[in-house]
Design a protein that fits this description.
The complex is a heterodimer of chains A (about 325) and B (about 260).
Chain A lengths: L1 H15 L6 H26 L7 H17 L5 H23 L4 H18 L6 H4 L5 E2 L4 E2 L2 E2 L3 H23 L2 H11 L1 H6 L4 H27 L1 E2 L6 H14 L4 H17 L7 H15 L3 H12 L1 H6 L5
Antiparallel strand pairs in A: 1-4, 2-3
Helix pairs in contact in A: 2-7, 2-10, 2-11, 2-12, 3-4, 3-5, 3-10, 4-10, 7-10, 8-10, 11-12, 11-14, 12-14
Chain B lengths: L1 E10 L2 E11 L4 E5 L6 H8 L7 E6 L2 E2 L5 H4 L4 E3 L12 H8 L8 H5 L3 H20 L15 H14 L4 E5 L7 H18 L2 E5 L3 H7 L2 E6 L2 E6 L1 H6 L1 H8 L9
Parallel strand pairs in B: 3-8, 3-9, 6-7, 7-8
Antiparallel strand pairs in B: 1-2, 1-4, 4-5, 9-10
Classes of the chains: A mainly alpha (about 325), B alpha/beta (about 260).
Chain lengths: ~325, ~260
């Protein structure tokens, strides 16, 4: 019961939150929402299923372009184009699943790196610049349901909130199911997992499908929030950023990924005053967190939880 | 039930198994013994289909076992435990047990993600089944404990329980009492007897503790350097000169680690 109360309070807080904030901050909160989905998508793949990817930005790009093009070129409405973009992206996830069947961790990392680089290089090629817009990219329509257009920062925030909450619930359901347990089993002891009937091919495919779906949705959401998409956004830096969100929040923990994504989305804005020192401070902050919170921010909270009985009274176990 | 015929396995220059043949009949408890490196675990890994044998056949209930992939072996009713624990350390006891029930889950990825009633009911039923087994062994207090924090003997027992939840017809136990105390060994022996007698599960086990093996098994197969050097009832094995020479040594019946 107390768990439901805390979740309700959190929900209420998220609903009234934008009223105390500047429009720009509300916008950044929405961007953080897209990043949450990308981080959770990578965490299910990397933290649960043990498949490292440093090419996730490619799925963001595929999701973003797909949703935009389905709306502008095929005239689909947003509520059709948006989920469809996620599904089509999840199918492209199977491209990485094939090398994952054969490659060990480090080699898979390199393969995903190559995948990310290839997609980013392919987008601006002149052959399809009439459709993809080359380096300049393309305009992305605002989300619209019926005749209602999500136009202001506030409207986009609430749309994002609903999308993120729904997908977090779905992700949580998968993570806590027999499928999530099969991911972990194959990660930790593949032989034992197989001997108990877990088909490695099927569950690796699931991991890539789920991960690419969430990341594709994240990319589509970000594209609709920004209103524009171009290949420059989807370099190695973006893939590493998502990677850092997962590590920072705590690998294998979905709440951790939420915190990691929000933190790393806002950090550049908090540091923007520092201008020249910005990159240095960003790096230093990462290093400090890794040193002092080796299990991520969520792991750090869990340690506090077990150290201070008062916290255990406030948040009973099982939450 | 299980028949190995002229089974051979070569790793590079090492002939791990050389034309091994023996049979396990339904309802038996068979012990597979022999010195370290004799090929006992290799036999298990071949039955689990982790390796492709370089020669010979394995059949189970008349079917050619070599046609199956590792994850399909359990569907036919063969479940194993591992010498160095096959438990998943970062899962709770209950979650580990529910991995044993893996093949009883059938909800699609979509129904699981959406939390549809069927997927929820499946999860609830499997959980109840695993809890029932824990309660049966008076271990329900451990349900939410993380496996890595538990004593070794307890972990061994949990791995056996997980194997049972996979509904085996033939259970392969790789050193089920290694590292256990005398009391734990006695309890384990009684438990395996019950599994065999009351639940009708056939058992093939590898173990170095000779008093445990002699006191439990109906029949014993002895391996040495990848070859079967003897098989028979425990009394026959204890009298066999070649077995004493290769493995048991003088003072038969004493434990040997």
């Amino acid at each position: 019961m107390p768990r439901q109360i805390w979740l309700a309070l959190l929900g209420l807080l998220l609903i009234i939150l934008p009223f105390g904030l500047k429009g720009y901050t509300v916008y950044i909160l929405s961007i953080a929402g897209a990043n949450i989905l990308a981080a959770v998508g990578l965490n299910l793949l990397m933290g649960y299923a043990g498949q490292v990817s440093i090419g996730q930005a490619a799925f963001l790009a595929i999701g973003g372009y797909t949703s935009a093009l389905l709306m502008t070129k095929l005239g689909l409405s947003f509520w059709l184009a948006f989920p469809l973009a996620g599904m089509l992206t999840s199918l492209t996830g199977l491209i990485l699943f094939i090398p994952a069947l054969r490659l060990g961790t480090i080699y898979l990392a390199i393969a995903t790196l190559g995948f990310g680089a290839a997609v980013q290089q392919l987008i601006p090629l002149p052959y399809w610049s009439a459709i993809l817009g080359g380096h300049q990219g393309i305009r992305v329509p605002r989300p619209q349901i019926g005749s209602f257009v999500f136009d202001t920062d506030l409207e986009l925030y609430y749309l994002t909130l609903v999308i993120v909450v729904v997908l977090l619930v779905l992700s949580w359901n998968v993570a806590r199911s027999y499928i999530g347990r099969a991911f972990i089993a194959l990660r930790d002891k593949p032989a034992a997992a197989e001997a108990l009937g877990i088909n490695p091919t099927r569950y690796k495919a699931y991991a890539f499908l789920v991960s690419a779906f969430l990341t594709g949705i994240a990319g589509a959401l970000q594209a609709h929030l920004v209103g524009h998409i171009s290949p420059g956004e989807f370099g190695l830096g973006k893939s590493i950023e998502i990677f850092a969100m997962v590590i920072l929040g705590g690998i294998g923990s979905l709440p951790g990924s939420v915190l990691g994504a929000v933190f790393l989305t806002f950090l550049p804005h908090w540091l923007s005053e520092a201008r020249l020192l910005y990159t240095f401070l960003y790096g230093a902050a990462l290093v400090l967190v890794i040193i002092f919170m080796p299990y991520g921010v969520w792991g750090f909270f869990l340690r506090l939880y077990y150290r201070f009985p008062a916290m255990q009274k406030l948040f009973p176990k099982g939450a | 039930m299980l028949a190995l015929e002229d089974l051979s396995m070569r790793f590079g220059g090492l002939q791990a198994l050389d034309r091994v043949s023996f049979e396990v009949k339904e309802g038996e408890i068979v012990g597979l013994i022999g010195p370290n490196g004799a090929g006992k675990t290799t036999v298990f890994n071949l039955i689990s289909r982790f390796y492709e044998p370089t020669g010979g056949r394995i059949s189970f209930c008349g079917e050619n076992l070599l046609r199956w992939r590792p994850h399909q072996v359990v569907e036919r009713g063969i479940v194993r435990t591992f010498q160095l624990l096959g438990l998943f350390p970062y899962m709770t006891v209950l979650e580990n047990l529910m991995i044993g029930e893996h093949r009883d889950f059938g909800g699609s990825l979509l129904s699981v993600a959406l939390g549809l009633p069927r997927a929820r009911r499946e999860e609830r039923d499997r959980r109840a089944q695993a809890l029932w087994l824990l309660r049966f062994l008076k271990m329900e207090a451990l349900a939410d404990a993380f496996v890595f924090a538990l004593p070794y003997g307890t972990q061994k027992l949990i791995e056996l329980m997980r194997a049972l939840l996979a509904r085996p017809r033939l259970l392969l136990l790789d050193e089920p009492v290694a590292g256990m105390t005398v009391a734990e060994k006695t309890a384990m022996r009684e438990f395996i007897r019950r599994i065999n007698h009351d639940w009708g599960i056939t058992v093939l086990l590898v173990e170095h503790d000779m008093s445990f093996v002699m006191g439990l098994c109906n029949r014993i197969v002895v391996l040495n350097y990848g070859r079967v050097i003897a098989q028979g009832r425990p009394e026959e094995i204890q009298q066999n000169a070649e077995v004493i020479e290769a493995y048991l040594g003088e003072g038969v019946g004493s434990a040997r680690a």
